[in-house]
Amino acid sequence: MKVESPDDPDQARLQGSDRALNDIGMGTAFMSQASNKKTLALDLKTEAGKEAMKRLISTADVFVENYRPGAFEALGLGYEEMSKLNPKLIYCSISAFGSTGPRRELTAYDNIIQGFSGMMAMTGHGDGRPLKSGAPVVDYATGTTAAFAISTALFQREREGGKGQFIDVSMLDVAMVLYSSHITSYMWNGKHPEAKGNVYPFATIGCYEASDVPMMIAASNLAQQKALWTALEREDMIKTNNNQRLDGHAEEAAVLASIIKTQTADYWEAFLNERRIPAARIRRMEEVMADPQIAARNAIQTLNDPDSQVNGLKVPVSAFNLSSSPAQVNKAPQPVGAQSAELLNELGYSEQDIARMREQGATN
Predict the structure, then answer these.
(1) pLDDT (tens digit, 9 = 90+) per residue, 245-284?
(2) Which of 22, 182, 298, 307 is in Cβ range 3.0-4.6 Å of 193 for a Cys bridge?
(3) What are the φ/ψ torsions at residue 217 (nearest 5 degrees)?
């Protein structure tokens, strides 16, 4: 269930590649993450809206909010108050910098955290221009982190007598976990990780130009690099330890570049994968979506709801499959407050109560 303000809903509703959908609050940015959810419109600035939220939370297993730290406490909806109503409640608060620290009250988005965290400074081609990831990786990793934390808290609740707890998720913390190996290296030797584009410490990992388009190769470990050089009939380039690989980077890169450019990327992709050496031609979105691997995984599903304005839209579903309960899109994303009356009825509100709430602007 998703709770939104009737007059100030989730901003993702207004974002996407189709302006007509944006105008009706059903932007593709929202469509990608709102399936299988009922929607309840509540204005939490009204007393009636806050009271309805309290009723809802009192019945919930999990409550997730991503307002600025302190905002829900100011509304009387913070964890301390809500845990008294519902001791079993798992209350997850997601924010830019977390609920503690000198920056706790600052607002930020994915791009701001990528910039603040140091991710952008180490991404790019080393020309002094920092580069943001093409995908909002911090946003989605934060959501995934929250889901994992919630699952952990639910499991712990079952093991420890049914008591809930507060979960504090920080986008900055998530960003640091995403590049934790770089942080560990920096904390050890004091050297800032430099932006190097598609260049890796080992030359047998990286992006190379085939005769037509670029491709990625990942002969990562010693066994794979031996297999690569053997397949290319350059056994003289095989190294016996990683220090030799580091020292020989320039020579190896030059040799690989001269070989890869002699054939197409498709040729090398097949040639290397047949020999268990990871390789892939760089693909564009339309080609990826048409690949049979995508269909085989059922990772992209079609919204089938004739009454929905987005019937037929294809959306990503889940990055994992469960053997007995596979992920399915059963409900298309809904307009703001589409199930407000239904959900308020379930909370004990009569039709007259709901009518009064509408008059007060507490719901739609």
Answers:
(1) 999 999 999 999 999 999 999 999 999 999 999 999 999 9
(2) 182
(3) -125, 140
| Calpha distance 301→328 (Å, rounded) | 8
For CA atoms 71, 76, 81, 82, give the dihedral sign: negative
Q: Do domains 2-181+306-359 and 205-282 have the same CATH topology?
A: no
Both tokens assigned to 311 = 């019937």
**Could you report the per-residue pLDDT of 110-154, keeping only the tens digit for each?**
999 999 999 999 999 989 899 999 999 999 999 999 999 999 999
Q: 45: alpha, beta or left, given left = phi > 0 and alpha = psi -120 to 50?
A: alpha
CA distance 308 to 284: 30
CB 15 within 8 Å of CB 27: yes
Residue with tokens 């919930």: 60
How far is residue 70's CA from residue 245's CA, in Å, rounded to a whole number?
52
CA gap 63, 61 in Å, rounded: 7
What angle (nearest 5°) sits at the alpha carbon of residue 309, between those of residues 307 and 315? 105
Q: What is the residue type of 233?
A: E
How many angstroms separate the CA atoms of 74 and 78, rounded? 8
Backbone angles phi, psi at 296, to 5 degrees: -65, -30
In the chain, DSSP assigns E strands to 2-4, 39-41, 62-65, 90-95, 165-170, 205-209, 214-218, 279-281, 300-302, 314-316
- Cα distance between residue 195 and residue 129, in whole Å: 9
Domain spans of the chain? Answer: 2-181+306-359, 205-282
DSSP 255-306: HHHHHHTTS-HHHHHHHHHHTT--EEE---HHHHHHSHHHHHHT-EEE---T
CATH 3.30.200.210: does it fit domain 205-282? no
Rg of the chain on CA atoms, in Å: 26
pTM equals 0.92
| Cα 99-102-105 angle, rounded to 5 deg | 55
* Residue 40: closest CA among 269, 351, 249, 335: 335
How would you classify the pairing of strands 314-316 and 300-302? antiparallel
For the domain 2-181+306-359, what is the CATH code? 3.40.50.10540
Which of 224, 79, 47 is CA-nearest to residue 153?
Answer: 79
